[in-house]
Amino acid sequence: MNFKLTLSVLLLPLLVACTETDEINSTIPGGAAVATTASDFSSGSHAIVSEKDSVFESVNNILPTGSDITLAASGEFFYRIEKAFAGNNISKFSFADPQTVIWQYSVKDDPQEAVLSNPTDIVVLNEQKAYVMRYGKPVVWIVNPSATTEAEFKIGEIDLSAYSDSDGVPEMYSGVIADGKLFISIQRLNNFSPSEIAYVAVFDTATDAEIETNYPGDLVKGIPLEIRNMNNDMVFVASDNAVYIQGVGSFASTEYTGGIERIDVASFETSLVLDDGTEADHPNGRITSLAVVSATEAYFIGCADCDFSGSFSDYSLYRLNPATGDVEAVAITELQNTALNDLSLSPSGDLWVSSGNATLYVMNTADQSLIASIDTQLNPAQVVFGE
After folding, report:
1. Residue 27 has pLDDT above 50, yes or no
2. Residue 382 phi/psi, 5° resolution?
3. What is the model's pLDDT at position 7?
4. N or C: which end of the chain has fewer CB within 10 A?
């Protein structure tokens, strides 16, 4: 599926309101899966967006569920992750048939457990092996994404309890695989406060053994970070052989402990690409999402007034050169001083911006021009792409 469109064509979003299987397969052969949520967080669902003959088409409100959901993708499949308040399970779909559940499996240790597992990510290594991040637990599940029964789903564990803080859990959030290594972000929040050093733990995907990253003085093997409260996906940039990670810091205090950090995949050395500033000087605000094109081009969402006492609709899109730290606002009116939720980079290099006004914006990164606006009915929260 080629998402790159001719800029000379004026694109208007086409909303396809269909639920029949044959209609979806004939009109929407696949493309992008979108996690969507109601503005009052009363419900959620997923949508499918595709481009055909220079027109975007969307199928919205597929299999409604709770609002506490996220997505992951691998190849021709995507996974809908129902987090703590939506079911504590994962469902597998194909992009070609996005309204049919291939399987749905729980990620609870015990069906009756009081402490919710709260899955936040699934990272697929191959057809027989994947890793499930469970935010409410100290143990990563190793699973078989091709399992045909729930009994065959869980095939192993990775214990992260060494990273637990005083509340008893490490708060693992997301993962990415690079060069045969699994990188896992670990927030280490104390009752939602980023008061402890955050880490990235690294594991050999062949053995699932943790790799010593050789930081002197640390009691754990992982990589200590300068940023805290990593609340989005990590990004592996193959051309740079680096993992980029974003941290929002603390929403609830005047401390600015977020930013964007780079991890060298070979040496595990880190560098602070962008600091979110201080209470007195934070020109880009809190950094809430990140997409990386290359070692010299990235985009992030910054919010100048993002705390629990302020507005959550003052987000803007910025362009960043990770090599120099230079930042400039993207000159698109729809992407400045508004409600922006998340960033995703398509396989063709276009930037998809999820907004809080039930609209997906697609931007050409070559010239920072707006390609299309797509109505998703509910608010888009995250976009993942098929191959």
Report:
1. no
2. -165, 145
3. 25
4. C
Tokens 């792409």, located at residue: 385
DSSP class per residue in 29-84: ---EEEEEE-TTSS-EEEEEEEEETTEEEEEEEEEEE-S-EEEEEETTEEEEEE-T
Which of the residue ranges 67-71, 193-197, 380-384 would you say has the lowest mean pLDDT?
193-197
Of 29-38, 207-216, 266-275, where does mean pLDDT reach its minimum?
Answer: 29-38
Strand 89-94 relative to strand 77-82: parallel, antiparallel, unpaired? antiparallel
Q: Which runs of E-coded beta strand occur in 256-307?
A: 259-264, 270-275, 286-294, 297-303
* pLDDT on residue 207: 98
Q: What would the two tokens of residue 250 be?
A: 């603390």
Domain architecture of the chain: domains with CATH: 164-329 (2.120.10.30)
Which amino acid is it at 283?
Answer: P
Edge-first strand order for the sheet with 340-345 is: 340-345, 351-355, 359-364, 369-375
